[in-house]
Write the structure tokens for this entry.
Amino acid sequence: MQEDILINWSPQETRVAIIENGALQELHVERALERGLVGNVYLGKVARVLPGMQSAFVDIGLERAAFLHVADVWHRQPDGEPPAVARSTQALVPIEKQVFEGQALMVQVIKDPIGSKGARLSTQISIAGRMLVFLPQDDHIGVSQKIPQLQRDELRSRLQGLAGEQGGGFILRTNGEDASDAELSEDISYLRKAWARIRDAALSLAPLSILHQDLNLLQRVLRDLVGDGTQSIKVDSREQFEALGTFGLEFMPAAVKKLQHYKGERPIFDLYGIDEEIAKALARRVELKSGGYLIVDQTEALTTVDVNTGAFVGARNFDDTIFKTNLEAAQSIARQLRLRNLGGIIIVDFIDMARQDHREAVLAEFRKQLLRDRVKTMAGEFSQLGLVEMTRKRTRESLAQMLCEPCPTCAGKGIVKTARSVTYDIFREILREARQFNPREFRVVASPRVIELFLDEESQHLAGLSEFIGKPVSLQSESAMGPEQYDIVLL
């Protein structure tokens, strides 16, 4: 799959679009004031230990305390055993015996804060380089599972020889498979220097200080997103183009050849209609070329995707119409998951198919499209209710969480009461107030639509209420009030 990477840079925001066959597949956004925290190393302070949850809250200087689970508390592993395997096979020491309130603790962010949840931490520090990940507290030498088994033993032996006896463990990343000894040695040297800077900072800085910050988005593009299928990396800023070139020459020389400085008069994102695609990715409804459509609803617990035929009536019979709509939907859903960066539990409600071969073909196409995703996904079979349950690893906030906020009018519900419902709420409130107080007059302050309804269709009911309580009721329109807001003033 051939791809192009477009980089739109401004002092306040960096946007990276990944284009495959002319269509936007992924969007990465980093804002100067909202930069992600994953990979950052802090000198934290334990604020609270919760034995019942086997976790602790650690203050690292953010708005909310970060979360540390006992499984993420580092301890030395048996020789030769990968850290993840050792943690899964050993009985965990209770967290209250490992950390205590007020303790200064070196921690690393492994998951950004999402919604109301604070960042997740680990005390096992790992520093990512171009081809290697350095584990300064462990001695394990590992190789990426994506590299074929036959090459792993050879690569592991090479890496053990290059690492020497200075301590620390390394994991070879996929893009280091064909690296020379000189390149690996250079990466090892860089990572050891980075760890030395972190240790020195931990000894000299006060708690709640940041000791190490991960690469910015532009640098991570070269490190993580550029692959053999990348044709070009277009940057619309000369300053950042030169900075990326300098960074690339030191860490990723092969990627530098693909760097291009975009000098066109039109904004770089206009070339592929990126801003229009972003607007569509924030919408609830996604149109399909056939005339069908998807409805995507993102909630706190899970995301649901509903497939509908819409205006597509097909050419032959109803079964073929449904099958073609579901096939197109499978491709579109996989793209929307990447583009919107939806994670966690995802439920897909394809249109019910009577034929088993149609269901198998749709599921096969869906899984094929998911293989193109950089993020780990897992899709199950069709359930008895005709649903496909899947998961996609949460790596950062979704596009909607990053670019949007809950509606101040409906507070995220997506609906508000009708004007008539609000008028009846006001009737009941006036009756309630009339039983407790004896004012000279009741004044209703509400939105223009509610006041208009009182003056028109509900005028007789309002007059009847005024007569029943024996007090006049006056009306005042307030355009600044929301559809559900009102106030009853006692005069």
Summary: The two ends are 72 Å apart (CA to CA).
